[in-house]
Specification:
Length: 73
C-alpha cells in the first residue's frame, strides 16, 4: 500500500498532470480514472469548441492531480 507522499503517489500525480485520470489508473482506481478522464476531457473539449475560458476544466484537472497525490490506499 502506498502512503501519502510516497514515490507511487508522486508518479501518479505526474501521470495525472499529462493525462487526467492516468494517475488514478496507475493506483488501480479504475472508476475514478474513468470519471476524471471523461469529465476533464469533456470540459476541455467543450471549452475548445465553444471558445470559452477553461474555467471548469483547469480546476477539475488540478483536483485530479491533487487526488492522485494525496491518495491513501
Amino acid at each position: 500500500m502506498t502512503q501519502q507522499g510516497s514515490a507511487g503517489n508522486v508518479l501518479a500525480a505526474i501521470c495525472s498532470f499529462f493525462i487526467a485520470g492516468l494517475g488514478q489508473l496507475v493506483q488501480g482506481r479504475i472508476l475514478a480514472a474513468f470519471l476524471f478522464f471523461i469529465f476533464v476531457g469533456g470540459f476541455y473539449a467543450l471549452a475548445a469548441v465553444l471558445y470559452v475560458p477553461f474555467i471548469i476544466a483547469i480546476p477539475l484537472h488540478i483536483w485530479c492531480i491533487v487526488d492522485a497525490a494525496r491518495y491513501r490506499g
